[in-house]
Write a structure and sequence with these properties.
Elements: H1 2-20, E1 27-50, E2 59-72, E3 83-99, E4 104-120, E5 123-130, E6 139-158, E7 161-167, E8 175-205, E9 210-212, E10 219-223, E11 226-228, E12 234-246, E13 251-262, E14 302-313, E15 319-342, E16 352-353, H2 358-366, E17 370-372, H3 382-397, E18 402-407, H4 415-435, E19 443-447, H5 461-465, E20 467-473
Parallel strand pairs: 1-16, 18-19
Antiparallel strand pairs: 1-15, 2-3, 2-14, 3-4, 4-6, 4-7, 5-6, 6-8, 7-8, 8-9, 8-10, 8-11, 8-12, 12-13, 13-14, 17-20, 18-20
């Protein structure tokens, strides 16, 4: 029995040792990590200011003038011993004007002015076949005017309507200003007054061959007439010529001369003869001033003088608009892979792979790559500058990216001129980028004239061809796109 257990042990012990020494497979996990630098962007909004061009002379104007001149009711007394002359006059004028171009506009407003005439009677007036207060008939009444000075004044309101012109050369500080028009006008006050009147009355009686000079009916008489004249509305023509001196961006000082004259006869009086009446010795049957006698001619009130005033030009305030833009930044994308190995420990030191995504930059630039210009211009608009700012932000993130700037023009004009214009547009864009930090060695420009039409339909046919296109060069061997 004892020998039997020894035999069992001798067989089992080797078998147990083989199981203990069996290989244990361990599973280990290796990590592969790739870090990629990517240009990304986020859509943001910013407020932009569109500045109004204060040098633009079109638009709305308010004009106010004060004038001092010499004027008259514009009539004469046909009696050789009598005369009229004018006097100083004043003018207040305010009007609105709109200039459709920098040089031409129209205006309308209101003026208030006065016309004054001094009438001087002279000489001897004789009325034959008169009857005196004693009913003595057929005597000659002599009236010798010794002193007679009469003032006649009207105050006039007019509605001036005119064509206006202003002109300025580049080297001039002042602008030439002129206007020409017509003005319906009417008089709100029209009075006359005898300032000094003395007449020596005498009567010659041919039956008696007697001249009476100092009796009840005759002798020196003093007169002090006042009253209202009869004046009809007028149509006047007027003209101004002067200079505008800039005080501020919106205000100009005007200095110049003016002239106005009525086209129609303003005198609507019922003309009456001179005479005398009863014992009142009225100089005429019913005296209404020299303006209303047979001796007065046609009346065309006129005025000439010097003006000073202010022209205020309305300039719209700067516009504030909100515009979308892309804010570019670099981010790191990390890719991790887990690999399970058996009995193997694999250690891998991850490398950082940085790739500059020029293709992505090209896509972002293409969103803003069409810069439009006005007719026959290579000046950048505010909108164009905002587009170029977005392009600059994208280019600054990828310093090795190069760009092509292609200038174009519409089919209007000569082809040689359009070649030059398109090249100037491309140069303007390139200069703007260089002035804002983009290396000039990254830029290639070209002008294509009107040979490459724009396929976009955002603008009218001619307007959409006045452009510059900006592209990122993806292949160094490529020429301008």
């Amino acid at each position: 029995m004892k020998n039997r257990w020894l035999l069992v042990l001798a067989i089992c012990i080797p078998l147990m040792g083989y199981a203990y020494n069996d290989t244990t497979f361990r599973h280990t996990t290796d990590t592969f990590m790739t870090v990629t630098q990517v240009l990304d962007s986020t859509l943001k909004q910013c407020e932009i200011v569109i500045h109004t061009d204060s040098t633009d002379r079109t638009g709305h104007y308010v004009e106010a003038h004060v004038g001092l001149g010499f004027g008259s009711l514009g009539y004469n007394l046909v009696d050789p011993y009598s005369n009229t002359h004018g006097s100083f006059s004043g003018l207040l004028q305010a009007q609105y004007a709109y200039f459709f171009t920098p040089n031409w506009g129209i205006g309308a407003g209101l003026w208030f002015t006065n016309y004054t005439t001094f009438a001087h009677w002279g000489g001897t007036f004789i009325w034959k076949g008169q009857t005196d207060t004693d009913l003595e008939q057929n005597y000659d009444h002599d009236a010798h005017v010794k002193r007679w000075k009469e003032r006649e004044t009207t105050h006039n309101i007019g509605i001036p309507i005119s064509v206006q012109f202003q002109y300025q050369k580049e080297d001039w500080k002042a602008r030439l200003f002129a206007d020409l028009g017509f003005a319906p006008s009417f008089d709100v006050s029209k009075k006359y007054r005898v300032l000094d009147g003395e007449i020596q009355h005498s009567g010659y009686y041919p039956n008696w061959n007697l001249l009476l000079t100092d009796v009840h009916e005759f002798g020196p008489k003093q007169y002090d007439y006042t009253g209202e004249m009869s004046v009809r509305p007028q149509i006047a023509i007027f003209a101004d010529l002067g200079a505008l001196l800039p005080l501020t961006k919106q205000i100009d000082l005007y200095l110049g001369g003016y002239f106005n004259c009525a086209l129609n006869d303003a005198n609507s009086s019922t003309k009456k003869p001179l005479g005398w009446k009863d014992d009142t010795f009225t100089f005429m049957d019913s005296y209404e001033g020299a303006y209303a006698t047979y001796y007065s001619g046609a009346s065309h009130p006129w005025e000439i003088g010097f003006k000073v005033g202010i022209h205020w030009h309305y300039i719209a305030p700067d516009k504030h608009e909100t515009e979308d833009y892309f804010d570019y930044f670099l981010r790191n994308d990390t890719t991790i892979r887990f690999i399970e190995n058996t009995d193997t420990i694999i250690t891998e030191y991850p490398d950082t792979i940085v790739e500059q995504p020029i293709i992505e930059v090209a896509k972002e630039v293409e969103k803003f790559n069409k810069i439009y210009f006005a007719f026959d211009s290579y000046q950048l608009t505010n909108k164009a500058k905002n587009y170029l700012k977005s392009i600059i932000e994208a280019l600054n993130k990828v310093p090795e990216a190069k760009i092509s700037i292609d200038g174009h023009a519409s089919s209007e004009g000569q082809s040689d001129y359009n070649d030059i214009l398109s090249a100037n547009r491309a140069k303007t864009v390139a200069d703007y980028l260089i002035n804002h930090g983009v290396d000039k060695n990254r830029i290639v420009t070209a002008g294509h004239g009107s040979r490459v039409p724009n396929e976009d339909t955002e603008y009218e046919e001619m307007n959409r061809d006045r452009r510059v296109e900006v592209y990122v060069v993806l292949n160094e061997n490529d020429s301008n796109k």
